[in-house]
Amino acid sequence: MGLILIHPNDTVLIQTENGHKYARQLIHKGDLVIKYGFPIGEATAEIQPGELVHTHNLISRLSGTKEYHYKPDFSFLKVPEKVPAFSAYKRADGRIGIRNEVWILPTVACVNNTATCLAQRTGAFAFTHPYGCSQLGDDLHRTAETLCALARHPNAGGVLILGLGCENNRLSDLKQRLNDLPADRIRFLNCQDCEDEMATGETIIRELQQITQQDKREPVPLSELTIGLKCGGSDGFSGITANPLCGKMTDRLTSLGGTAVLSEVPEMFGAEDILLHRCVSKTVFQQAAAMINRWKTYFLSHGQPVSENPSPGNRDGGITTLEEKSLGCVQKGGSAPVSAVLNIGEPAQTPGLNLLDGPGNDPIAATGLTAAGCHLLLFTTGRGTPLGAPVPTIKIASNTALAQQKNGWIDFDAQTGSADDLWDLILRTAEGAPTKNETNGNRQIAIFKDGVTL
Q: Using CA atoms, how far apart are residues 8 and 10, in angstroms rounded to an integer?
């Protein structure tokens, strides 16, 4: 493919063989280097035409928090009168699920192995984590909120909340929070309260499985579908192939009245204005701006610069600064107006593009998107990862070399596949076709932690 010019005004080219940037023109020391039509950093030395542009001659210009001003610049996407249908499971609360599984959610790490053994015996799915005890304040609240949100996920036809009995994250508290769920679909078990937790747990799961076996798919409008947008192990192609392709999926789904959720707030730094100016109201804008500055303050409070985000793998793949990574990342949001801002554990209920609070860390972000009610994730990668969320995780390679090398991980090649091809894959996945993460059993959760451990 040779060299690709991203934008007519760019001062860099991308070399397709390795994803790295090369100067298109003379760049003086102190000049802004432009990619995607926006600055990705400042040159620290004179860069000759054709010279590599990377960490040795380019630095981030990001620093602290900013004062943002609302300058709306968006168009509402027109929803057709007739929305296409697909088959899914209708739940009692009116939502739909694209899987019909039984999930085991431990309240505390002490029963992780019990949950795993029960899953192996029954074919249910256990989502373990290291928390639930020795936590206080926001951390304990976040753990409980995340587990409750997962318990409500419509892809789970039945849920067993598995406790120990002496943990901070009390089973009785979760039971009260979840008392609106159908009693035949959610069950609770404290291991300290029964003689044989394995036998009791297995009996409960078998009962839940018998109930879910009665559920059948039926036609529902595509406007009921919610997708999550995630990137991990990005490279210089991610913002050229895979992420823009996801943006087309976002626009296509939201134009049908569906919902897309974009997270990874630190990977909006340097590109946030693109999203902020698409907020549908000043209230949504203020919520989004506050969320971005809150994460910048989080970095600074720990003595870390807000620009310290691209991982070693990102840099090996050609990404130099956080601005460059962010400008590629936000393209997953397409051109859709931003309709809502969500807290961790809060469900996406407003059609359109939602912004979800949370870090860029892959397993934590994927868990947050699942907890927000996303039925499936579009996960782009330029370096490759086997990671998967509890929900189907369509792994999209930014380049053909990766898709061929890691065929066991990758579901779609964004360098050769079309938007229609990816849309068809989304629909097949929504109707039951397994993704590679499901086939491989790569399904996990991780919960954000920021406080003390007792």
A: 6
Cβ 355 vs Cβ 262: under 8 Å: yes
Instruction: Provide CATH code, domain 3-59.
Output: 2.30.130.110
What's the burial of 300, exposed, middle or buried (CB within 10 Å: 0-12/13-18/19+)?
middle
Closest CA to 374 of 355, 348, 352, 396: 348
Quote the crossing angle between the two packed helices 137-151 and 362-371, to the nearest 10°.
60
Dihedral of alpha carbons 247, 253, 255, 261, sign: negative
Cα-Cα end-to-end distance for the chain: 55
Domain boundaries, the chain: 3-59, 101-212, 222-440
pLDDT tens digit sequence for 73-121: 998 877 788 899 999 999 999 999 999 999 999 999 999 999 999 999 9
Contact 107, 418 (CB under 8 A): no
* Report field, pTM of the whole predicted structure over 0.90: yes
Angstrom distance (rounded) from CA 150 to CA 153: 5
Separation CA 65–CA 114 (nearest Å): 45
The answer to whether the CB of 260 falls within 8 A of the CB of 227 is yes
101-212: CATH topology is Ribose 5-phosphate Isomerase B; Chain: A, (3.40.1400)
Contacts of 10 (CB under 8 A, 6+ apart): 24, 34, 35, 36, 37
Q: Kindly indicate whether the domain formed by 222-440 is annotated with CATH number 3.10.50.
A: no
Q: Give the DSSP letter string of 208-255.
A: HHHHHTT---EEEEGGG-EEEEEE-S--TTTTTTHHHHHHHHHHHHHT
Burial label, 58 (beta-carbon count in 10 A; 0-12, 13-18, 19+): buried
